[in-house]
Structures are given as C-alpha cells and as structure tokens.
Amino acid sequence: MRTLAFTAAALTAAALAWPAASSFAEPARRVPAPKVDVMPSPTTKYETAVFAGGCFWGVQGIFQRVKGVNNAVSGYAGGEAKTARYDRVGSGQTGHAESVRITYDPQQVSYGKLLQIYFSVAHDPTELNRQGPDTGPQYRSTVFAENIEQARVARDYIVQLNQAKTFGKPLATTIEMSKPFYAAEAYHQDFLTRHPRYGYIVIHDMPKIENLKKLFPESYRSTPVLVNPAKGG
Predict the structure, then answer these.
(1) 82 with 110: CB under 8 angstroms?
(2) Close Cβ partners of 210 (under 8 Å, ≥ 6 residues apart)
(3) 23 three-class SS
(4) Which CATH architecture has domain 8-29+41-228?
(5) What are 31-65's pLDDT values in tens digits?
(6) pTM (two decimals)
(7) Residues with catalytic function
C-alpha cells in the first residue's frame, strides 16, 4: 500500500527527496511479438483488455500513451464488488489485483501489440505477487482475459516467451477469465500525468514511459488520453 500525500508542497518534497530516476531504471528490451494474435472484427469499433502488473499508476500511464488506445482506467479485478476499494485491496486478502482496463481500436493497435508492450515495459512478468517495492497478490502479474480468444493468445504468448527463455526465468503471469473490472477511486485516475514529480512515480514509473518511447516509437504518443482530462497536466 503506497502512502499518498497530495499537497503541492508534499509532492515537490517527495520528488526532490529521491535520486534521479535514471539511477533506478531497470534494463528493458522489446520482447518478440506474439506469433498469434486476436483477429479484429470489421464490425467492432472498440475492444477492451484488462492487465494487472503492479501499481496501476504506471500501467495506466503507459497505455494512455499508446496509439490506438481510446481510454485506460485504473481499477481492480479478480475479487468481489464489495471489496473493490483501495483500503480493502491493499490488505492482499480480497482476490483483487490492481489492474487497468484498456479500450482500444483494433484497427490501429492489436491485442497482441498491447501484450507485447505489457511484457516489454509495463512490468516485470517474472516477479511473483510483487512488483518492485510493492508486495502481495494485489500486485500480481495477470492477464484478465475478456474472452476465450484473448485467453488463447495470451497463453500461447506466455509459452512462446518461456520456450525462448526471453527473460531467463519462467514468467509468473497468470490468466484469469470472467472476472469483473471495477474502476478505482477518482484520485487514482491519471495519477502519473497529474503527479509526474511524485517520488514513487519518479523512481518506478517515469523510466517505463521513457522505455515505451525508446522501444516502441511507432506506438508512442506524447499526449496521453486521460480519464479526467479537465484534471490533467
């Protein structure tokens, strides 16, 4: 559970208290694209994908900067509606994982491309029930498949990456189906964009944005699509 301090003075102090982000940046590389992908329907304008990969602030911030993404919402998936609250999920006892629901145009970006970005820059898929300093099943690496085809593509991709020993050790990523998504509280939405100097963001998430720009220049856009555009910036 991350401690939140939202005053301007607190945010500035938190950022200045940390060393430069580059000293903490994890090595990242563009992993091979999946050999199979979800075929887009010519009659469907938008599709959705739900990924969990640690703190949702960074995962949301990454996919908000991917071309073809129409919306990316932070939230919770894997548990029940009554426990889909930040103060409950942080206990690690709800079954929820901090997740991001991505709405995208399959004519511009495929599900497979989203998976490739997810595994390349959004998180470390070899960590079990943790990401960096955040520990517990609420920070697990999970693809919440929306349908059988997404599950098949994600499963085949995990097998592909494991067989190629892409990460040097097995992926911890799991696949869960038919799990409802619940949007997180408003103060979590667009957090990276609204608080780019917040200490946690500076250390753990801004390097991921740089990796997205460097490794996927064809997919990167500098202006993110926001959940609450009036509060962005």
Answers:
(1) no
(2) 25
(3) helix
(4) 2-Layer Sandwich (3.30)
(5) 999 999 999 888 889 999 999 999 999 999 999 99
(6) 0.90
(7) 55
